[in-house]
Amino acid sequence: MKKILLTFLILTVFSCQEKKKEISSEISIIKEKEIKKKNEVVISVNDTINSFFTNLFVDEMQDNPDMLYLGKKENRTSVTIPIQNTVKIIGGDPFISFFYELQLDKGDSLLIAIKKIDVNQSKQIDYPIFTLLNSNRRWSETNFDYILYSYNLKSKAIVIDENKFQNNKYDSEKIYKNSIKLLDSLKSNNSISDKFYSTNRINQKLKFATSRIREAKNQNLELEIESLGVKLNEDKLLNNKEYVSFLRALMLYKYFNEDKRVKNSVLFDFVNEHETFLNKSAKDVLLDSYLKSIFFVEKPKFDKYLTKFNSANENDELKNKWNSVVANQKANSKKLNATNRTAGLLTNLVNDNELTFEQVLSGHKGKIVLVDFWASWCSPCRKEMPFLKDLKSKFNETELKIIEISIDKDYSAWVRASKLENLSKEEGNYIISNWEKSNLYKNFRIKTIPRYLLFDRNGKIIDDDAPRPSENELEELIKASI
Questions:
Q1: What is the spatial distance between Cα 426 and Cα 292, in angstroms, rounded to a whole number?
Q2: Are 91 and 54 in contact (CB under 8 A)?
Q3: Which of 95, 88, 97, 132 has its CA nearest to residue 113?
Q4: 158, 169 Cβ separation under 8 angstroms
Q5: What is the pairing mode between strands 400-406 and 429-432?
Q6: What kind and span of H or E run contains 461?
Q7: 39-57 pLDDT, tens per residue?
Q8: Quick count: other Cβ atoms within 10 Å of Cβ 213?
Q9: How far is CA 2 from CA 10, 11, 379, in A?
Q10: Bridge partners of 103?
């Protein structure tokens, strides 16, 4: 009996060990799957949404955000965005103090729904509600902006006037107190993580301090900096964009209180050449911030100020960042100006060949050819892309050829937009430089985009201002021409 019992115990232990090994193996497989996330982000909208727009930032050095339109009306309810690191979506309406921002990591899949919010008795807005389908982030974290905005409306911290946007009331102190109450409440309910709680308490404090500084400057009020409760040279916060905004506002208040508008180049020179409240680390970060603004707003001065920055800056990480930006700029410029393209030579991402428009057109004899002139920054152009894709699916390749010609002056913006619109592997997706000097521009008098040209099977023009793909008339015109 003892032998039987001992054998049973051994078998039980062995069996448990095997199960542990199996469970451990399963966990490691799951972890491996979690680690190997795809270099993409998927954004979808609820199928009840008619139309939804948001600004998309894939690269912090974008001059302009990409415009993302989703919904039934837009003929697109989902988009896959190829990325290496993160994507950020930003939207809202400054007239009613409504803003949202959400950062997405590679591998994330986001579903967007819409919540109707009454901002006053006569006006409703559509506030996006975010659900991350494959992330550990909690709902209250991804929708904190929505929860706080609703709370601010309910508590009258934000009051939207029925008639005039200028009469809206915005109580920054009450908004700050509401944010802290909300964070404390969500933390006590375990609805947000410790990291989210601590990070956002700091950010809300910085936002409030920045708003107080700006209010004091705009109204010529005296302000005790110490009363803000924010250290002026806090190394731990130098990578925090809210802290940099705080320092920028403080710089204007302390040294440019009489000036309404000050150029970033002027601010750069002042910080670079004068002793201020900043220590060396904070000075480098602030100069970096001004340089970024110069890059976007005062571009002709950028090279000059980059030289100044490299002479003054001792932060290798910041210096390497700008070296990378400049290297990318040079590479993009070289691709657009490899030859003299005043005749209108076209280049695509598939084989990088240089062709004239006439060569491209003659290469598709026997087909109806639709030419789409667009650009990454053109909102109406981007809205037509899903309809263009749908139109393409209705005809076979021997009947219709669609050629995309971008007039972008920023090569990287075209590449980014091409990937977003699933055009990067299409041979018919081209970019042209020296657009306004090209024969193509002059011959067809193309002053605005989007613009569509329709050619017959022999390359002769059918319509030099064809209907847009979202209009049924274009499909009928193509059918009649086949």
A1: 34
A2: yes
A3: 132
A4: yes
A5: parallel
A6: strand 461-463
A7: 899 999 999 999 999 999 9
A8: 24
A9: 12, 14, 82
A10: 88
CB of 339 closer than 8 Å to CB of 345: yes
Residue 405: what are its φ and ψ, rounded to 5°?
A: -125, 115
Which residue in the block uniquely carries the two structure tokens 């909300």? 182
Whether 278 contacts 288, CB under 8 Å:
no
* pLDDT value at residue 337: 64
CA dist., res. 232 & res. 383, Å (int): 45
Q: How many helices (H) and strands (E) does the chain have?
A: 15, 16
pLDDT grade, residue 8 (50/70/90)?
very low
Contact 387/470 with Cβ under 8 angstroms?
Answer: yes
* Contact (Cβ atoms closer than 8 angstroms) between residue 71 and residue 64: no
User: How many residues does the structure list for the chain?
Assistant: 482
pTM recorded for the entire structure: 0.81
CA distance between the termini of the chain: 91
Contact 376, 410 (CB under 8 A): yes
From the list 243, 262, 316, the residue with the least C-alpha distance to 284 is 316
Under a CB-based contact definition with an 8 Å cutoff, are residues 114 and 97 in contact? Answer: no
Q: What is the pLDDT of residues 219-234, one digit of tens each?
A: 999 999 999 999 989 9
d(CA 403, CA 371): 5
Cα 331 from Cα 345, distance rounded (Å): 18
Starting at the edge strand that comes first in sequence, how are the strands of the sheet with 86-93 ordered? 66-70, 52-57, 86-93, 98-105
CB contact at 8 A, 196 and 190: no
Tokens representing 316? 């290798």
380 upstream amide cis, omega within 30 of 0 = no
- Look at the block and give the residue holding tokens 């990287």: 412
CA distance 131 to 115: 13
Nearest by Cα to 114 from 129, 93, 131, 101: 129
Strand 368-374 versus strand 400-406 pairing type: parallel
Contact partners, residue 402, CB within 8 Å, separation at least 6: 369, 370, 372, 388, 391, 392, 428
Nearest to 138 by CA among 194, 93, 82: 194
Cα distance between residue 438 and residue 344, in whole Å: 5
Instruction: Please say whether the beta carbons of 430 and 347 come within 8 A.
Output: yes
Please say whether the beta carbons of 402 and 391 come within 8 A: yes
| Tokens, residue 193 | 């993580």
Give 62's DSSP letter.
Answer: -
**Paired tokens of 419:** 């990937």
Task: Kindly tell me if the per-residue pLDDT of 341 is higher than 90.
Answer: no
Other CB atoms within a 10 A radius of the CB of residue 223 amount to 15
Asked if 477 and 467 count as a contact pair (C-beta separation under 8 A), the reply is: yes
